[in-house]
Amino acid sequence: MGLTGIVSAAANEKWLDFTSYIHDGSLGTAIAETLEMVFLTLLIGGILGLILGVVLWGTRPGNLFGNAVVYKILDVIINLIRPIPFIIFLAAMQPVTIAVIGTSIGTAAAMFPMIIMCTVASSRLVEQNLVSTDPGVIEAARSMGVSKFGIITTVLIPESLAPLILAYAFLFISVLDMSAMAGYIGGGGIGNFAIAYGYQKFNPYVTWAAVIIMIILVQIVQGIANAFAKRLLRR
Q1: pLDDT tens, N- to C-terminus, the chain (235 residues)
Q2: Domain total of the chain
Q3: Which domain holds residue 201?
Q4: Considering the domain boundaries, does residue 1 fall inside one?
Q5: Residue 6 falls within a domain, yes or no?
Q6: Which of 69, 100, 180, 223 is the most buried (most CB within 10 A)?
Q7: Domain ABC transmembrane type-1 spans what residues (predicted)?
Q8: Would 214 be classed as within a structural domain?
Q9: CA-to-CA distance for 151 and 137, rounded, in angstroms?
């Protein structure tokens, strides 16, 4: 058998391995685990980040709850965590993850630092979008006697809803990246699938399948977010 035949046989073997992962449900399980990690992280971290982002905006000097000390403390904490590459953050959080979750391996162990990082990232995105809200609209609501909480729920967030939707779509991409990196600690999902069956077994079909699946997920979410944001902006 010549060199070409050897290469062809090896490629066929890799392809058969890849198709076996489809037939035995490994690929489907990986996709389900990724969706579970990403959407639960976005749900929990996104809500916590929304609350924290509103607090950041509100405690800015001159805003509804202006408090320079509280704002500075939160600002410093977020600036300390946000720049850390997630793979390093996973390692740094390992003792805390073990204390809270009971293990540093698996989907739950991966989600804990993912939620923390998602909360921090989304809080800054929320704050930046709320800052761009027209101050005149807020002042008009205050002059009409609307409560501070009422201003947040009926004026501030609705006015910023379209850019917030786009911000959370961008956040989805970041969380999807985090879920892929979580594969290094056996977090499951597409990342773990690509590492265990693609990278470690030198199977390019598995690796490219993981890449294509993640691209499709991003395109779907971004398309939905763009449609919602466009609809809101037309109102």
Answers
A1: 454 655 566 677 888 777 888 888 888 888 998 898 899 999 999 999 999 999 999 898 878 888 889 999 999 999 999 888 888 898 888 889 899 888 878 778 888 999 999 999 999 999 988 888 877 888 888 888 788 888 888 888 888 888 898 889 889 988 988 888 877 776 778 888 888 888 888 888 888 998 899 999 989 998 998 888 888 766 5
A2: 1
A3: 14-233
A4: no
A5: no
A6: 180
A7: 31-225
A8: yes
A9: 10
Residue with tokens 């410093």: 76
CATH of the domain at 26: 1.10.3720.10
Tokens of 33: 């685990």
What's the CA gap between 115 and 103, in Å, rounded? 16
